[in-house]
Amino acid sequence: MPINESLTQQLRDQARQLLESKQVDCVIGYEASPRGSARPAFIYDPAGADRLIWSTACIHNLVTYLHDKKKPRRRGEEPPRVAVVVKPCDSRAVNVLLAEQQIERERIFVIGVACEGTQDEMGELLSRCTRCGDRVPIVYDVLLGEPPEVTPVEDEYADLTHIEEMPPSERLAFWLREFDRCIRCYACRQVCPSCYCTTCMFERDDGLWVDIGIELPQKHIFHLGRALHLAGRCVECDECERVCPMELPLSLLNRRLVREMEALYDHRAGREEILTPLLFELGEEGSPL
Amino acid sequence: MKFTTFDGLKDWLDGLAQRYDLIAPRNVDGHVLYRPVASSDEILFDYERPELSAKDYFLPATEVLLRVEKRGRELTEDQILPDRGQVMFGIRPCDAHGLAAIDALFLEQDPPDWYYSHHRQRTALVGLSCPQMWKGCFCTSMGGAPDDPTHLDVLLTKVEGGYAAEPITEKGQALLKGLTLKERKGEIPSPVADVEHVPVTPPQGWRPLFENDEMWMRHGERCLSCRICTYMCPTCRCFDVTDRVVAERAGVTRIERIRVWDACTSTNYRRAAGGHNPRATKASRIRNRFFCKFCYYPEDFGPLGCVGCGRCIISCPVDIDITEVMRDVARAR
């Protein structure tokens, strides 16, 4: 994956300056992986800034790592101040975490990168990027790079239509077949910036709804439950789908609810710093529910 | 070499499918997985490394250990295990090696694990050697090879026009009786094994690195604390046990005790009563994962906890690479 020299240099300079001036304690960005792509990197000292890179292989949503930085590294210290490199999709997660009071705006420095879309190992644009019309992050303290031109998205829900046209029994069979491959590794949940419950309801020792078995009923309820918990909170970064070792089409579930939330409440998670309407409108008079 | 045609092999497998539970590599919606098959037509013969290891058929992801039925004040217990034989066709040598590593704990310790031994005893391993090493593979550094027969009952190798078959154990010899084999001149071709050697540091070399926080932060900080690596691993064998009520009506309660895979990479794996978690950081969990494989397990039970199948490397969403850790440890000594 060729490295974008100019953006890489800008990122390194920015990171070095932030660390040297002690404006932040840590910069979360990307470094080159020995196997040729990119991977998350945590830089603590200015000299390490030269590890940072930018390329179309920078696919990870690094905002999820901000949850690890909510606590101090050592007892008695302040939690670290962190800079994080974000693409437009990632930046929406920043807004969700701000609205949900998981992070403090003044403790994070957002390095926005103008995004031309990310690619898989074969050099193909990731499916999430083919649907995305954003080239500039929504939240940032500094913006690096020139926004490339936007390719208009014709129908971002085209792939949903096919599922919805199925009769219910066929649709159920489709999903059970997909869920059957799940190995309950929780990678989808772990990578998700919006999934941060201290104890997931699907992993409780006294779970009333679902036990620890790695079987179809548990997997079925886990995936549907997770999708519902993300209604109005999923920023469509599609990281869950990317990390799934069994390639479950989880984006279909999430975007079904994204579309629903937009139709009902004109709400799209992360576009603004507001909570999902489901958290405060549920059951109120005049609510669509 | 002893040789069978492809058609001869398929007939033999169809016969085995009648008598035994036949497990073989199958294409499951685009994923190569070891799965039960009813006929040889479902089997993949040309495949890389199945995406999950073979351990599911010996230490199932979910296994019912005990069924309890309560009627009024009366309790009945039942332990049900399949009594049919099982044949695992197309198992790769690294996966058989992985079972040998688990054997050291579940078979060779006293008492042996009753369920695991049952599955091991009822199963014959018919391996198919890898013609080459795949992306991420490093079995040759871990004492294995793409055509390593050591832990198999039968080793098959694809040759011109069919397969060469070598019985390795008596169990394999007996199983091969149903297969028409002809003597054929020529050597069984050797696979291409050109992967760079990864240094394996002995357990005592790992010990001093336990407190190298910088090293474990560097490898562990990007970990997502998911379970991909441990669930795919042919040697990871941690499990959790729980009881669940499966039916409750008209004075009858049915309870199952299940055993389910668990993973040391997950956040709450080490959480103790009262809520304390001595492995609360990602760095400490990643350190434990690698110490278990190269230090604790070989010290306690003999074999290394890694066979070099490379699954964890190619599946990790954040590129945590066991060979990178091994090289780092070798350098740091």
Throw out a few tags for this protein.
heterodimer, A: 289 residues, alpha/beta, five-stranded mixed sheet, 5 strands, 34% helix, 9% strand, B: alpha+beta, four-stranded antiparallel sheet
Explained architecture:
By secondary structure, chain A is α/β, with parallel strands linked by helices. Chain A has two domains: 140 residues, no CATH class; 120 residues, no CATH class. Chain A has ten helices and five strands, in the order H-E-E-E-H-E-H-E-H-H-H-H-H-H-H. Chain A has a five-stranded mixed sheet. In chain A, helix 3 links the parallel strand 4 and strand 5. In chain A, helix 5 packs across helix 7 and helix 7 packs parallel to helix 9. Chain B has ten helices and twelve strands. The longest helix of chain B has 20 residues. Chains A and B meet through strand 2, helix 5 and helix 6 of A and helix 7, strand 11 and strand 12 of B.
Topology:
The complex is a heterodimer of chains A (289) and B (333).
Chain A: H1 5-20, E1 26-32, E2 38-43, E3 82-86, H2 88-99, E4 108-113, H3 127-131, E5 142-144, H4 158-164, H5 168-181, H6 187-191, H7 216-229, H8 239-243, H9 250-265, H10 278-281
Parallel strand pairs in A: 1-3, 3-4, 4-5
Antiparallel strand pairs in A: 1-2
Chain B: E1 2-5, H1 6-19, E2 21-28, E3 31-36, E4 62-71, E5 74-78, E6 86-91, H2 93-106, H3 114-121, E7 123-128, E8 154-159, E9 162-167, H4 170-176, E10 182-183, H5 203-206, H6 213-220, H7 228-232, E11 239-249, E12 252-261, H8 282-301, H9 311-315, H10 322-332
Parallel strand pairs in B: 2-6, 6-7, 7-8
Antiparallel strand pairs in B: 1-9, 1-10, 2-3, 4-5, 4-12, 8-9, 11-12
Helix pairs in contact in B: 6-8
